[in-house]
Amino acid sequence: MNKMESLSFFNKMRMRYILNLPYYLYFASKLVLLRLIYGRPEFIVYWGKALGDNLLLTSPLKYIYDRTQKKQWVLSFYPELFRYNKKIICLKNNERGEERIINLLKLRLHQPVYSKFIDKDTQESPENHIIRIIAKELEITDYEKVPLEIDYKLHPKELGKTAGKPTIVIQSNSNGANYFIANKQWYPERFQEVVNYLSPFFEILQVGSINDFFLEGCKDLRGKTTIRESIAIIASSQLFIGLVGFYMHAAKAVGTRSLIIYGGRERPDQSGYTDNINIYSATHCSPCWKWNNCDYMKKCMQEITFDKLKEYLDLVIANRNKIT
To answer: What is the mean pLDDT of residues 307-315?
Structure first.
């Protein structure tokens, strides 16, 4: 960078700080006021842009609150996930210097990590459920007692009324995820087989990104709902069918049972819930915790055919008026 470029860069940075000064003052004063009202927090928990991981924070934070009766502080890109949760103070992360201000006010910012990267594509395979690893990272000594649940609050007005056929919510893939993981993806054509089999008995609603593969025979809600609207839709449904990720955790949050295609990238006991139907492939290479690369042509996913799901789908059909 030459002298002129350095000067131009400096001027741009100076203008950025000047333009953001009112926001910095607002955010800092908000932190000071909250500290006066609720006391100094042990830490402000921070997570990135993974929706599901933000939901996973709620269980250990609830556990801490129930023991201390102190509201827990969170800095999140998704404050809507913590709405109506009286045990959490959520600060919105707008990527406008919030972390710097928190540090300047000498408040502790803490980002838990449940699995470190071995290389650019591979994480360590966790030795415990990731909720409990997060709890341990948040300095909960009896972290094994933290429930494997999600503390999410829906307002009664958010719940819709259902009529006619029982409802199932489904996703085809997760192309719209902030952190796309190819090894979590099943095959859209096999999801289509599931829809074809269930559609005579259920109204099937497809959620997800507008870039996700559309499944014929579904009511198309891709890209048409907010985060909270999609969770409310799942809450009003009898079953969620999909992949490991945000919607799986959202379904758990609102008490809707799920049928989850796990494959072999990770095990259900590491990230899932025992009350779900978890379709896992225990191949010789699983769980690999790889994101996108696979030396075995995704054998773990290939082994999960429609026929392997059929017995579970028959139970779903048989109990369609009993599923809660």
So the answer is: 97
Residue type, 55: L
Architecture of domain 164-318: 3-Layer(aba) Sandwich (3.40)
Question: Which 3 state secondary structure label does DSSP give 279?
Answer: strand
> Residue 112 pLDDT more than 50?
yes
> How far is Cα 171 from Cα 186, in angstroms, rounded to an integer?
10
Quick check: bond before 200 cis, omega within 30? no
CA 298 to chain centre: 23
Dist CA 57 CA 309 (whole Å): 31
Taking residues 294-310, report their average pLDDT.
97
Q: What was the pLDDT predicted at 321?
A: 78
Domain boundaries, the chain: 3-145, 164-318
So what's the pLDDT on residue 34? Answer: 98
3-class secondary structure, 308: helix
CA distance 222 to 40: 42
Contact present, 150 and 157 (Cβ < 8 Å):
no
pLDDT at 97 over 60: yes
Among residues of the chain, what percentage have pLDDT more than 70? Answer: 92
Pair 271, 262: CB distance under 8 Å: no
Show the beta-strand stretches assigned E in the chain. 44-46, 72-76, 88-92, 109-110, 117-119, 122-123, 167-170, 203-206, 219-220, 239-243, 258-263, 277-280
Crossing angle, helix 227-235 and helix 246-253, to 10 degrees?
Answer: 60
